[in-house]
Amino acid sequence: MSLYLFQALNGIGLGMIYFLISVGLTIIFGLLNFVNFAHGAYYLLGSYLCFTLVSLTGNFWLALVVAPVAVAMLAWVTEKTLIRRAYHLPHTFHILITLGIALIIQELSIAVWGPIGKTVAVPEALSGVFRMGDFFYPKYRLFVILFTAVIAVGLWLLLERTRFGALVRAGSEDAETVSLLGTHIHKLFALTFALGVGLAGLAGVLAAPIRGVHPFIGPEVLGLAFVVVVIGGMGSFSGALVGGLLVGLVQSMMTTIWPQGASLMIYGAMAVVILLRPYGLFGRA
Amino acid sequence: MKLEINRIHSYYGKSHVLEGVSLEVNPGELVTLLGRNGAGKTTTLRSIAGIVRPAEGSIVFDGEELIGKEVFEIARRGVSLVPEHRGIFGLLSVEENLAIAVRASSRWSLSDVYEMFPRLYERRKNGGNALSGGEQQMLAIARALVNDPKLLLLDEPTEGLAPVIVDEIVRILGKIREAGVSVLLVEQNLAVCEKLADRHYVIEQGQVVYSGTGEQFRQEQAVKDRYLAV
Ligand SMILES: Nc1ncnc2c1ncn2[C@@H]1O[C@H](COP(=O)(O)OP(=O)(O)OP(=O)(O)O)[C@@H](O)[C@H]1O
Ligand SMILES: [Mg+2]
């Protein structure tokens, strides 16, 4: 029994990390109508920055704040210099450009950090296990679940309860009308891109102590994020949350039941969703 | 604040839609732009708002050239377009639709427009999708008002609406004009136009073919037959 609970918690933690990655991807797609294939590479960068900051300072908490902000700032600069020039082009161009960015980030990472993976130690305060009766669970993983839950609530409040959030939602429906109301649409786009990518960077930081850092993780992360977004529905916050948790849970449950079938189940679930609800669980036509 | 459009030429790709349109709206005036389907009325409004960039000519508002400025920059100068499709955000509530447009400098606050449109107050928690056509039009106008307009560009605000609602909108337009906001109104409903306007322009195939005051226009049966009859 407690093995299943253990795996369920693992699945939720993993799922929340997938949520962080996918929600950024989906917000960016919703507002900017932009396909960001560099999303996994920004996650990678978040992980590596975490590694470096932890090695230099020994302070994970510093990395938790600084690395995502640094990734978001880099994204903001990329948007200003490169990405905004591509909005008016077809999606294939978005893919080409961001795939290029992804390769640059990946290869630079190898140049800086080497081709071999790195490990990041769990922060001191969260090492060891949390114990309740005869149930044990790693403290750090519990922290990830709680922390990402707080981030999810904060993000929801940002999107649903602030003017910025209302502008993002309005712009996802009709960006032209948003600018007709005097909103600096380029700023809104750049901020949203930075926010979405920053969330991928944050996911990279949180995952680093659990999964380590590996230079070729980017494409895998990107693929999973797309699966989540397709299952949940493009542009949907709730879709990213439910889709992320679903994929995380399936993946982690499968490791006890039938490890080789984990990917199969995930892509199978995606196929079923596409057949039954082409726009995803929470998507709109 | 005065709007002066001087011989603008606008294109959609290669198709030459405005062929030297000139018109002006003086401070506090309500001017209509009339013409058949496809004459270029919407394109004229879109050119002023910066959605379409004229290749030639000039559009001067309050002494400043607008051509070349971005849509949001033009909007921030007080040029407010209420588009034909109304541009209501269906997934935002009525209140959110208004809130994202509110500017402190406007003489109309949120509560002012709720007072003008009690129906919007009743429906403030509803999504934009849930509104009727008339309510959407009211919301589009209310949203322009809280956005601090100096010049309001209205594209067929009464199109497809029931006569009671049309009367309501005419009443509101009267109030807006009393407040001193200039209005450039595109409208098919001649009765509405004649009730409200100081002056009229008629546009045909991308050129202004008639202009006259409200009084002159009333007598111009020939112009109406030639350019406006369906
Ligand atoms: N996006 C577009 N692309 C290409 N041509 C367009 C576009 N929009 C309008 N046109 C063409 O430009 C011309 C002027 O259109 P416009 O919409 O300005 O007319 P209008 O006077 O507003 O007509 P209506 O009364 O039907 O609204 C028409 O011939 C129309 O077919
Ligand atoms: Mg039109």
TrEMBL record, chain A:
**Protein's UniProt keywords contain Kinase:** no
Statement: the UniProt record of this protein carries the keyword Cell membrane = yes
Q: Which UniProt keywords apply?
A: Amino-acid transport, Cell membrane, Membrane, Transmembrane, Transmembrane helix, Transport
What are the TM regions of this chain, as residue ranges?
A: 12-35, 41-74, 95-116, 140-159, 188-210, 222-250, 262-282
Q: Where in or outside the cell is it found?
A: Cell inner membrane
In its UniProt record, which GO terms are filed under biological process?
amino acid transport
Family stated for the protein in its record: Belongs to the binding-protein-dependent transport system permease family. LivHM subfamily.
Name under which the protein is recorded? Amino acid/amide ABC transporter membrane protein 1 (HAAT family)
Q: Short name of one Pfam family for this protein?
A: BPD_transp_2
Can you name the source organism? Marinobacterium mangrovicola
GO MF, any single term:
transmembrane transporter activity
Q: How does it sit in the membrane?
A: Multi-pass membrane protein
Cross-referenced InterPro entries: ABC_transp_permease, BCAA_transport_permease
Q: Name one GO cellular component term.
A: plasma membrane
TrEMBL record, chain B:
Residues annotated as transmembrane: none
| Keywords assigned by UniProt, alphabetized | Amino-acid transport, ATP-binding, Nucleotide-binding, Transport
Alphabetical list of Pfam families matching this protein: ABC_tran (PF00005)
Residue ranges of every copy of the ABC transporter domain listed in the record: 3-230
Q: List the protein's name.
A: Amino acid/amide ABC transporter ATP-binding protein 2 (HAAT family)
In which family does this protein belong, per the annotation? Answer: Belongs to the ABC transporter superfamily.
GO biological process terms, semicolon-separated: L-amino acid transport
- Gene3D superfamilies registered for this protein in UniProt: P-loop containing nucleotide triphosphate hydrolases
Per the UniProt record, the source organism is Marinobacterium mangrovicola
InterPro entries documented for this protein: AAA+_ATPase, ABC_transporter-like_ATP-bd, ABC_transporter-like_CS, BCAA_Transport_ATP-bd_LivF, P-loop_NTPase
User: What GO terms are given for molecular function?
Assistant: ATP binding; ATP hydrolysis activity; branched-chain amino acid transmembrane transporter activity
